[in-house]
Amino acid sequence: MTIRVLIVDDQMMVREGFSVLLNAMDGIEVVGEAVDGREAVAQVAALGPDVVLMDVRMPVMNGLEATREIAAMGTDAKVLVLTTFDLDEYVYQALRAGASGFLLKDASARQLAEGVRVVASGEALLAPTVTKRLISEFSRLSAAPRPVDASGVGELTDRETEVLVLIAQGLSNAEIADRLVVAESTIKTHVSRILVKLGLRDRTQAAVFAYETRLVTPA
Predict the structure, then answer these.
(1) 186 contacts 121 by C-beta, under 8 angstroms
(2) Is residue 143 assigned to a domain?
């Protein structure tokens, strides 16, 4: 199945460059472009992309606000944040707002395509070692962390709690299954139940939740 991608960036060269790279990849099609967050929200509603490559610093409406609006729309579109710096202060806020991961703008064509495929497949924590470091760092350093309702943690079974911790550590479903010596389908079921019980959108939100409630503490 072809992954439909929307590219959002206020720089034409970036949009065109990513478009050329992605359209050259098997199973990926760029279905549209947007120059700012407001146009991105409109394009998501009109085109129904699977993945949105979202810049964070744009005029009219920034990527953070656009990500929040797209997440609130209840669509299946996954937002993959584009940033110049791996510790951009906006990236953690974007993850909080509903983004499924992030990617550096200097990523290679292979990394870009792989990132799109990973996010589209639901393995939302792109580049686990880097994303985990970013989540940990901003969880630890955030001067004013948002209040988090941790009441749902008590509804998780011991195994679900264990799976949640491993998600926050950046492990994929296959890696968690291998660690716990169970079938990958079993882990997928656990993940689905965790998201429902905690009222979360995807794996990335689950990882952020685990850090913010201190279920997992930064290394």
Answers:
(1) no
(2) no
Residues 167 and 98 in one domain: no
Residue among 59, 52, 103, 57 nearest 78 (CA) = 52
- pTM for the structure as a whole: 0.73
For residue 52, what pLDDT is reported?
95
Range of the domain at 31: 3-121
Residues in the chain: 219
Half-sphere exposure of 123 (CA within 13 A, CB side): 20
- Residues 13, 90, single domain; the answer is yes
In angstroms, the Cα distances linking 119 to 12, 63, 78, 147, 214 are 24, 17, 7, 27, 25
Q: How far is CA 2 from CA 30, 38, 51, 122, in A?
A: 10, 26, 11, 15
From the DSSP assignment, how many helices (H) and strands (E) are in the chain?
10, 5
